[in-house]
Structures are given as C-alpha cells and as structure tokens.
Automatic annotation (TrEMBL):
GO terms for molecular function: actin filament binding. SUPFAM superfamilies: Putative isomerase YbhE (SSF101908). Residues 415-432, 493-504 have a biased composition (Low complexity). This is Coronin. Pfam families: DUF1899, WD40, WD40_4. InterPro entries: Coronin, DUF1899, WD40/YVTN_repeat-like_dom_sf, WD40_rpt. The keyword Transmembrane does not apply. WD repeats lie at residues 104-146, 147-188. Residues 3-66 form the DUF1899 domain. Residues 514-548 form a coiled coil. GO terms for biological process: actin filament organization. Residues 397-510 are annotated as: Disordered.
Amino acid sequence: MAQIVRQSKFRHVYCTPVKHENCMSDIKVTEITWDSLFCDVNPKFIAFINKGAGGPFLVIPVNKIGRIDKDYPFVDAHRAPTLEVWVIPDKGLSRTLHEPAVELNGHQKRVNTMAWHPTANNLLLTAGGENLLLLWNVGNGEALLEIAGHPDQIFSVAFNYDGSQFVTTCKDKKIRILDTHTGSVVHEGVGHEGLKPQRAVFIRDGRIFTTGFTKRSERLYALRAPDNLSSPIIEEELDTSNGVLFPMYDEDTGLMFLVAKGDCAIRYYEINNEYPFVHYINTYTTSEPQRALGSIGKRGISSTENEVVRLYKLTTKGIVDILQFFVPRKSELFQHDLYPDTRSTAPALTAEEFMEGKNAAPKLQPVNPAAAQAKPKLNVAKKANILAQLPTQIETTQQTSYAEKPQQERQASRPTSQATSRPASSAQSSPRKPVIDDDMGIVAMGGSSGSRSGASSRQEAPKENKPDPMKPKEQGRHADVDELPAAAPNRVSASPRMSVSSSSGEIGRMPTNMDELLEDLQKMKTVIRQHERRIRMLEETLADANMSSAYSF
C-alpha cells in the first residue's frame, strides 16, 4: 500500500546560517551548571548572562557585527536573592548599569524560573528556591498573589495563550495546571519518570507539550491533554544525552524546536491535530555545541525572504551563530499564509483589570504592516475602446472595397494569361458567403469550400501552367513546384492591438486616429487579398494536377 505524503506548508522548512563575518564574536557566557539557556532575544537586543545564574549580563544590539570588546558595558545585576527589573535605553548601553528600575523583594531564595504574562501589562510570575510562586505587578513592585503548595523544586512555568492559566513542572515528577487569578490547581498528573528536570509548555489550543527523561535516563517528549496529564496522547524517546531539553514553541506556525545546552543538534517538529500530532521535520546539526540559545519574535524576522523562525546560538568559541529557518517558496511576494497576525507589544489588559478577574486574548498586529496594507496595482492604459468599433467597420469596408477598386488596378493584379472558362451554372449555384478570419478579424468574400466562384472572387490558373496529363506523376509535381508564384515582398503581421508591422517600414507605427486606422486596415487588406489570390491559384493548380494524375492511370 502506497504511503500518503503529509501535506503541510512547513514540511520542507530548512535552516541557513548567516556567515560568521556578519555575526558577533568573542562573547563569554557563565560557566555555572544551571539548567538554563542563558540567553534572551527581542527585535532590538540580545542578552547573555556573564556570571552566576542570572547576572551580571550583557545587552547588545541584535544587529551588531564583529568582535565584542572585553570592556563592553553590561548590567551589574542579581548579586543577591532579590529580583530586579532593568530598563535598557533604545540606543543600547553606553555605560554599565548599576541601579535597577524596580526591585522585587519577596523570595527568600534565588529565583529559579520566571515568565511574563502574555496579555496583561506588567505582570510577572516567578518561582523561588523556597518552592513559592509569586505574581508581581512590576509597575509598582507589589506582589499581587502568593501561590504555595509545590512540595519540591519548581523546574519550569509557562502561561497558556491568554494567560488565564499556567503550567508548572516539579521535582516531585508532577505536572500541574493552575488558575492565574486564584492560584488553585485545575489539573494535576504524573509526568516523566526520570529524576532529571522536566519542562512543559502550553500549545496554542490548550494541550501540553513536555520534555523529560525515562528511568534509564533517555530523553523523550510527550503531548498531553490538560484533563488527563498522566496519560500522554503521544510519547517518543529520542536519545541518551544528559542535557535537559528545552521546548521552544512558535504559536503562529505550530513549530516546536527542541534544544539543549551542550548539544550540537537542534530538532524541530510541527504540532497539529493530525495523527501522530507531533510531526518530525528535520535536525540541524553543527560541529560546535551550544553554550546559550535564544529565539527572536516574529517582529524581528525577515518576512520578505519567507523566514519563519530565527535562533541565536552562542558556541563554545564565543561566536553567535544566526540560524534562519525558511519555507521554500518560488514567489517573491509576501506570503500571507505563512504570516498570520502575531502578538502586539500593546497589552490587552492592565494589571488591575486582570486582578478583577478579567481575561482577554492578546492584541495582534501584522508581521509586515507595509505588505499587509499594500494592494496590487493594475497598470491599465486609459484609451478609447477601439475594439468595440472594429468589427462593423472591417466588415463594411471589406465587402465594398473590391467592388470600388478601379478596373485598371484589378486587371493589373490578375495573371496575364487567359482565365479558364467556367460554366455559368457553377457560379450561380454557389452564392458568395463572407468568410471571417477569427485570428485576423478580416472578412473575405469568396465561394464555399466545396465550389468554385467567378473570376471576381478567385483567379483561375493559367493554361500553360497546367501539367501535361501524358507526363509521369513525378514530373508534373516538379513542374508545379517550379512554377509557384513568388512570395509577397512585404510580410505583414497584426498584433491584438492592431499595430501593423511591415518589413518595408511603411505601416509599422501605431495609428493615432480613426483615419490612420482605416488607412492601415486598407493596406492590410490589399496585401492579404494578394496572398489570398496566390493561395487560390496554388489550390487550383494542385487540384488540376491531381485530376491529371488520375487520368494518367
């Protein structure tokens, strides 16, 4: 049975790294063995942790190229369990920052993980080493909600699409879904069996994607339904490496990237509602392991090149590899199906509105506002509709032109030999009918295809050109070929716009008024009639030759 190929626009996503001469280099990152990627990126800046688990850290413009000096300014932060919020100038750091904008004092031990609320303004969720969760209003430094109940270290926290719930993973191997407003547990289940850290993120439709380890320390991932966390919808083992897998999810495309500190490979998948739900796409591998890694948002990618994801990978050599993931498309136009509206920087709720119990979907904005607003332009020439008048004029002119032609001109255009006489009944039995040439738009007056008309509509072949019926067939055919009439001196072709071109250059320009148009048409018809007469002469000569050949047998 033939296997059906899965249809998906992201099935052939491929990675192209930026050349090293266009990247940053000579960046050092912290040596602490902490389960973190030590990097974060937005469309303006990229940050790397230099020392410790959370600072000091570098903040560098994302488009900077070349070597980073050792005395480059940094943010001198997080030397104590306190949580600090810093504001980076739009043009970047010109000096080292020592004073934070806001200090959040509430945790007794260092903060293990944190997440910004996706729709409400200035809401931050943090998890401390004392197994306590705090929801902060960063605008005034106030802790709005304190959530206890986790019996052991919290490995990860992540919000759902509108921020009404969040999911946590814990050292007790359990996965919990909590209500953000109240802190109560909505769903709970057993996660991966291994002792090493596991992580979980929400998929846009509400399902949970987790990474972890088996009892044999094999790395694996699973997709789970929120109301049945203990029984995965699908689960797959990957390898036996020691690095903790971090899921990096793109909610706009459904692409999931699995990365780990110390790995040389980046696996990526597409998650949808078709079995097996998590579809493997490819693995990007390099010779250098990653020390830090971050993903930029949709507002920072190149939509004109069909780029859908961009990762920044710091290698052990201190080089920041820029990894661009593209969807192959032949068209150079903006691909609307690849770029649905993405999250806007404007919040959908204030912190006070959220604490009143309100939820809201995130505000969206176009990925490429200029391309989304642009409409295709049609270059239509504003001219008179000449074609609407042509059929009537051509037909009338063609029917009267030959009758009005001077007698001397008609006689001069005829062959010099005497035309063969025809019975009068033959001409009367086949009345003239207009023959319309669909390609040229010309009406020619002539007899039907099954009979011969009078001399006024078709010229007879000269007697001396007729083959001798007593000659062999081959000789008669050669004689016919030798006596074919010469080709017309001027070749005339008509374009759909009725612009007539001639090898002699007499009628090659475009007519500008109706008189010139009629004059060009008259010239066309004159040349066409000459070709028609020669064609009829050839047809009659060939017909007579065939009759003579028949008599010879």
